[in-house]
Write a structure and sequence with these properties.
This protein is an all-alpha fold. It has helices at 3-31, 34-40, 46-60, 63-76, 81-94, 97-102, 110-123, 127-153, 160-168, 172-186, 189-201, 207-220, 223-229, 234-260, 263-271, 276-295, 299-309, 314-322, 336-367, 370-397, 404-438, 446-472, 478-504, 510-535, 539-545. Helix 14 crosses helix 17.
Length: 546
């Protein structure tokens, strides 16, 4: 192979990979957010989850993209590992479609396909039509890239050194390892499989050797997910480990099957006897389906193994329990009085979680504790999840046969949920100020910190009192809560004036002044949200709304 032929090979690979990216991007844009919506509705029905995984991966043409979305959902608590495993298994089947598509010899038509796609993408104004154009354009690039690869590697059949290298891959173990390494390098099992397929079509690889390379490619496909999981929580990391386990077990199953029953490969070859490209594609698809069918009954065991590899910590158990509805968890029709009581208790529980998160954020700010700040971020995800779940349940309550007054209570409770969620949002803001101070980008004087501490303590007292009023319907305490809220307002005005004076005397820097003002505003607003919570179900509030 000459240097120009080598450059041609690299260009073909680059065009193929870029075509895959363009096609995948076009498919995602054309479908909008539907893939995420579909994934969010993956249920504990594993067969349905597998089908969802297949569908989404066929749409985005990338199992890695599907797996990364799944890691994100598990990381945020929107999906459990039990739900994730079905989707991941489906993604392993869906990704084989790429090899089925490229098994068609459309290289001669690739320039025309590329031209049509480019015209649609560049000149049509409708966004959906432009997305379809990018899909077609990516499709053309994909086949043009394959055509260039085939032309570039043809001379390799006469290269003694390359043939000697390929002969080392006749050892199945080495072939699997090379498949893993090559796929990890490309960060795409679809791309690696298609390139192996092209080598086989050009006669550079035998069928059986290609089979082992494809098996290795499936294991190497988890590399992007493992890298992505490094920035996630432990549940996100378990999802990546789960994917690795699925593919390792899959590889073991397939290697055992083809060595114990070599007739399997003979049968697959007989389906398309004169087309090795199609044989490779069929092997890829059939192996994926067979392996998943064998693994599916043991999905629970595989999930348990991933949890043993990355054990569940006590705080994770608490987080899981926090994200379960404890009172609004009954299906079917309930008496309105019971349903409203359950809703009030559930919202109160969420309120205490948000209150504790606010208190943790305040402690993180004053102690500059990064670990505590990270816990605040995690609990914020929990509060967001509960906001979504409780709001949905409250909407369902409106379908019950209840009085107009009770409907008004449901509406007011929905507003309370929003106020509680805002408490946790302010907690998130406060830990951002902690990060700025920790990085030495802002300096606050001891006087400023003491004043913020006084305001924080008053704000927490306000939140505690208002949550107690809402939870126990102690509306007689509302005047006390209003007095405390007025005190927080006055205290904020006072300390801001004092801090302005310090800024004028250069006792605090300008960035510290911004943080002081912003944090005092956050704390004052927490008291505002608290009084909204306290008065939401009071007689006066309901009468005014009614």
């Amino acid at each position: 192979m000459t240097i120009l032929e080598f450059f041609s090979l690299l260009g073909g690979v680059g065009l193929f990979l870029y075509g895959m990216t363009i096609m995948s991007s076009g498919l995602r844009n054309a479908a909008g957010d539907q893939m995420r919506v579909i994934l969010e509705h993956a249920t504990s029905n594993r067969l349905l989850a597998v089908l969802i995984g297949i569908a989404v991966t066929v749409l985005v043409q990338s199992s890695s993209a599907t797996d990364m979305m799944v890691i994100g959902f598990v990381n945020s608590g929107l999906m459990t590992l039990a739900q994730a495993i079905g989707v991941i298994m489906g993604a392993n089947i869906g990704t084989t479609i790429t090899a089925q598509i490229t098994a068609f010899d459309l290289g001669s038509y690739a320039p025309l396909i590329l031209f049509v796609g480019a015209i649609m993408y560049l000149f049509l104004k409708n966004n959906f039509a432009k997305h379809i154009g990018s899909i077609i354009m990516g499709f053309g690039m994909l086949f043009l890239g394959i055509s260039i690869i085939k032309s570039a590697i043809a001379p390799l059949s006469e290269s003694e050194s390359f043939i000697n290298f390929l002969s080392t891959l006749s050892n199945p173990a080495l072939a699997v390892l090379f498949g893993i390494a090559f796929t990890a390098l490309l960060q795409s099992s679809s791309s690696a499989t298609v390139i192996f397929q092209a080598f086989a079509v050009q006669g550079l690889l035998g069928y059986e050797m290609t089979v082992y390379l494809v098996i290795g490619a499936a294991i190497g496909s988890v590399t992007p997910n493992i890298l992505a999981s490094l920035t996630t929580n432990r549940n996100g990391k378990r999802t990546a480990v789960l994917n690795l386990l699925i593919n390792l077990i899959r590889a073991a199953i397939l290697i055992v099957l083809i060595n114990v029953f070599p007739q399997i490969l003979t049968f697959i070859q007989s389906l398309s006897p004169d087309d090795i490209g199609r044989q490779v594609a069929n092997t890829h698809t059939i192996f994926a389906i067979v392996a998943i069918l064998i693994e599916l009954p043991f999905a629970g065991k595989i999930v348990a193994l991933s949890q043993k590899i990355i054990p569940t910590l006590p705080e994770e158990t608490r987080k899981t329990e926090d994200r379960k509805l404890q009172y609004m968890n009954q299906s079917g029709s309930l008496p309105p009085a019971v349903a409203l009581s359950q809703a009030r208790l559930e919202i109160s529980r969420m309120g205490h979680i948000a209150r504790d998160n606010l208190n943790s954020a305040i402690n993180a700010f004053f102690t500059l504790d990064d670990n505590l700040a990270q816990e605040v971020e995690d609990v914020e995800d929990t509060v967001n999840y509960l906001t979504h779940e409780i709001t949905n349940r409250l909407v369902m309550l409106r379908s019950l046969d209840m009085s107009e007054r009770d409907r008004m209570k449901v509406s007011q409770m929905t507003l309370v949920v929003a106020d509680i969620e805002r408490l946790s949002d302010h907690a998130e803001n406060i830990v951002e100020y902690e990060a700025q101070i920790k990085s030495k980008k802002a300096v606050l004087s001891d006087e400023a910190l003491e004043e913020l501490r006084r305001l924080a303590e008053a704000s927490i007292r306000s939140v505690d009192l208002c949550l107690d009023i809402f939870e126990n319907e102690r509306f007689d305490l509302i005047p006390q809560a209003e007095d405390l809220e007025d005190y927080v307002d006055d205290l904020q005005d006072e300390i801001v004036q004092l801090h302005v004076a310090r800024l004028m005397n250069n006792e605090c820097d300008s960035m510290g002044g911004v943080i002081f003002t912003d944090m005092s505003s956050d704390l004052e607003r927490c008291s505002d949200h608290a009084i909204n919570i306290a008065t939401a179900l009071s007689e006066e509030s309901l009468a005014r709304k009614y």
